[in-house]
């Protein structure tokens, strides 16, 4: 890996992790969230930080890889789309208290993640593989989001 690629990798990981952390910090679960009825498989709150940090590192690495290797193709655009949707979810859910709208965002994000995996599978397999745990976690988050919406009518 040359210096330019190493800097790109570091930049993507730092921006992705920092962006996710800032948005998470700005839209923390508050009293509204604490009062909601949660589904049976709702994990403890402490698990979300480490899981998302790990996923953001994977997302950043995949983003750097496709930016370096696949610039000019759909891959970087789909990568950016899923990140924009990802960063939109927390403020809509936690700040606007809109589990209905956040579920729509989450479903669009999952489609973008799956599209990224499909497009990257034959072009950049490591990037596709880095997105598999992300797809699994976002699918689980979809269950949590949908259940919260169902259990707590607006």
Automatic annotation (TrEMBL):
Subcellular location field: Membrane
This protein's UniProt keywords: Membrane, Transmembrane, Transmembrane helix
Annotated transmembrane regions: 7-26, 46-67, 79-97, 103-121, 128-151
Top-rank lineage group of the source organism: Bacteria
Membrane topology label: Multi-pass membrane protein
GO CC annotation, single: membrane
InterPro entries: TspO/MBR-related_sf (IPR038330), TspO_MBR (IPR004307)
Main location: membrane
Gene Ontology biological-process annotations: tetrapyrrole metabolic process
Family in the record: Belongs to the TspO/BZRP family.
Descriptive protein name: TspO/MBR related protein
Organism (species): Hoeflea halophila
């Amino acid at each position: 890996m040359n210096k330019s690629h190493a800097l790109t990798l570091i930049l993507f990981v730092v921006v992705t992790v920092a962006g996710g952390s800032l948005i998470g910090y700005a839209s923390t679960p508050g009293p509204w969230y604490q009062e909601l009825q949660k589904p049976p498989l709702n994990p403890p709150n402490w698990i979300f930080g480490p899981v998302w940090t790990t996923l953001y590192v994977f997302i950043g690495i995949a983003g750097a890889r496709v930016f370096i290797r696949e610039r000019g193709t759909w891959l970087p655009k789909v990568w950016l789309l899923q990140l924009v949707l990802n960063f939109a979810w927390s403020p809509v859910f936690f700040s606007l208290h809109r589990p209905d709208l956040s579920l729509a965002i989450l479903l669009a994000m999952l489609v973008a993640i799956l599209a990224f995996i499909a497009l990257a599978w034959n072009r950049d397999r490591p990037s596709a593989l880095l997105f598999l745990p992300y797809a699994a976690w976002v699918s689980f988050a979809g269950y949590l989001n949908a259940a919260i919406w169902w259990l707590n009518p607006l």
